[in-house]
Design brief:
Layout lengths: L3 E7 L14 E9 L7 E7 L2 E9 L1 E8 L4 E4 L7 E7 L2 E6 L6 E6 L4 E5 L5 E7 L2 E6 L6 E6 L4 E4 L7 E7 L2 E6 L6 E6 L7 E3 L7 E7 L2 E6 L6 E6 L5 E3 L7 E7 L2 E6 L6 E6 L4 E4 L7 E7 L2 E6 L11 E10 L2 E4 L2 E8 L4 E9 L5 E7 L7 E5 L5 E2 L4 E8 L5 E11 L6 E10 L5 H18 L3 E2 L4 H22 L3 H13 L11 E2 L3 H14 L5
Parallel strand pairs: 31-38
Antiparallel strand pairs: 1-2, 2-29, 3-4, 4-5, 5-6, 7-8, 8-9, 9-10, 11-12, 12-13, 13-14, 15-16, 16-17, 17-18, 19-20, 20-21, 21-22, 23-24, 24-25, 25-26, 27-28, 28-29, 30-32, 32-36, 33-35, 33-37, 34-36, 37-38, 39-40
Helix pairs in contact: 1-2, 1-4, 2-3, 3-4
Length: 538
């Protein structure tokens, strides 16, 4: 395959206080073609080494994926109408299937080659996935609303209720973003699912159109026509700061963000190209150079995939998927450029090593610190400040996250040296969660909850006469039996017993429930939480 490599060394002076100053850096990239079929492959998404795209070689549109590291293309769907609008997270691919009466969401597991259809009324489209959570737009209410589906609990939650359209949702961890039309123009809104009472929050409120949001960790990017035909903006969730990525008369659009980099499409060079922006350096570089058009792209860390029409023919058309792997290199390099500690229980901690590399040609003395405004939940537990770092040598800084309260917090680790170099900023985030009760205590809590709910009249046995009390007693016996099995170390047996109990209070017609009432839903949730804590299904 043809590869293009180039390296640019630039000296820039940036005056914006929101962007780190830069003295020198290098941008390196290599390009290769992933698909070569004569028909169209288009609209790719990427997660790690897996690029997913739509393909029309079989008349209708099917889903394929390309394993970049193993150089292998795999067909996912076969026939049955068009499958489009994909996303991928780890080994899970989600896509919209238009082969039935309605548009539906399907999930494909690369490891097992298994499919799961999310069976819901009306039309669901444009899915996005992060871990076990899927967001999508749904028109069951006469307009498009944003919904959430949890693959673990198999529960759906409506997130937006405004009568206008909400669409083009994206998700990263517990944060959901989308386009929202409630104000008569297009704005970007978000919701933090980890909050005690999740609520919508306007990311933008400009009278212009702010659209096409994408999110990775603490960073939201979007396109806007507030000052020109189209520019790209960056929003930091932790401090609410908005930073312009572009500010030109050129048409910039369709941004993506991942691993400290922003990608976007631009006509600055006269045709549609993909450009890349380093958040830590505050600079942009052109990533594609062919005279044809490059568009419909996605980014995952230092990998960029896009649709390219350079092989197009008047007779058949021919869109292909290309890959660019890239890096911005400064004398100070740090890895990772961002880190999410995930859920950490209150009273415990989690640590992460950030490795600093001297990529220059002279030694420097490194200094590190947490930027003003960083949460006190983050501390530097191993600090290399004052150490001399030789060319090609490395030092490590250790960051520890010890949440003092529930909820998401963030910090910025700033790395500097004693010679002219760009400051490097490491975006840190984490979510403090309540410490999980041990299984024995959870069993006791469930039994106490049943007793209190029965006394309050919010939980009763089902059936008439003695049947109601007998079924309630049988249900209690199932929970107690699960506790005995946990004590005996028989986790598989406890999981079977808890699943049987869950099915007796889940509100489904079959099998018939043993208990009912307004407390039954909370009871079912407590059982699911207990099953998760002891590892059922793993």
């Amino acid at each position: 395959m043809k590869k293009i490599s180039f390296s640019l060394v630039l000296a820039l002076a940036l005056i914006s206080s929101a962007i780190p100053s830069v003295s020198a850096y290098q941008f390196e990239s290599s390009e290769r073609q992933l698909t070569t079929d004569q028909y169209d492959q288009f609209d790719p998404t990427i997660s790690g080494a897996i690029a997913v795209y739509s393909d029309r070689r079989n008349d209708d549109s099917d889903i394929y994926y390309y394993d970049i590291e193993n150089d292998q293309e795999v067909r996912v769907t076969e026939g049955g109408g068009d499958q489009l609008l994909t996303d991928v997270s780890g080994n899970l691919i989600v896509y919209t299937n238009y082969g039935g009466e309605n548009a539906d969401i399907f999930v494909y597991d690369i490891e097992t080659a298994g499919f799961q259809q999310i069976i819901l009324p009306s039309n669901q489209r444009r899915p996005a996935i992060s871990g076990n959570l899927i967001v999508y737009e749904d028109d069951r209410n006469g307009n498009y609303d944003i919904y959430l589906y949890d693959l673990d609990s198999q529960l759906e939650t409506q997130l937006t209720f405004d009568a206008s359209h909400q669409r083009k949702a994206d998700i990263s961890g517990q944060i959901v973003v989308w386009e929202d039309f409630r104000n008569g123009n297009v704005d970007v809104y978000m919701m933090d699912l980890s909050a005690e009472n999740p609520a919508i929050f306007p990311v933008t409120n400009d009278p212009a159109h702010d659209m096409d949001p994408d999110i990775d960790g603490n960073i939201i990017v979007y396109a806007s026509n507030r000052y020109s035909i189209g520019d790209i903006y960056l929003y930091r969730i932790d401090d609410g700061m908005t930073v312009p990525v572009t500010a030109t008369e050129d048409y910039e659009r369709n941004p993506g963000v991942s691993g400290g980099y922003v990608s976007y499409e631009s006509d600055a060079a006269g045709d549609a190209d993909i450009w890349l922006y380093s958040i830590s350096l505050g600079v942009s570089e052109r990533a594609t150079f062919d005279s044809a058009e490059q568009y419909l792209h996605d980014i995952s860390s230092n990998r960029l995939v896009f649709t390219d029409n350079r092989n197009d023919t008047p007779e058949d058309g021919n869109l292909d998927i290309y890959l660019v792997e890239f890096q911005f290199i400064s004398d100070i390099d740090a890895s990772p450029l961002s880190y999410d500690f995930g859920d950490v229980e209150l009273g415990s901690s989690s640590s992460q090593i950030v490795t600093i590399t001297n990529q220059g040609d002279q030694p420097y003395t490194v200094s590190t610190g947490l930027k003003s405004g960083s949460s006190p939940d983050y501390i530097i537990t191993s600090d290399p400040s004052g150490q001399s770092v030789a060319p090609n040598d490395t030092v490590d800084v250790e960051i520890t996250f010890s949440p003092a309260s529930e909820g998401i917090s963030s910090a910025i680790l700033e790395i500097n040296s004693n010679i002219p170099n760009p400051s490097v900023e490491i975006q840190l985030s984490g979510n403090g969660v309540p410490a999980e009760d041990p299984p024995e205590e959870q069993i006791s809590n469930i039994l106490d909850f049943i007793d209190a709910s029965v006394e309050e009249g919010t939980l009763t046995g089902t059936g008439n006469g003695n049947s109601a009390q007998n079924r309630l007693n049988a249900f209690i016996n199932m929970i107690e039996s699960a506790g005995d099995l946990i004590d005996a170390g028989d986790i598989d047996g406890a999981c079977d017993q808890l699943m049987a109990a869950y099915k007796k209070c889940d509100g489904e017609v079959r099998p018939p429930d043993f208990v009912s009432g307004v407390a039954a839903e909370d009871l079912a949730s407590m059982i699911i939480e207990l099953m998760a804590s002891i590892g059922c299904g793993e």
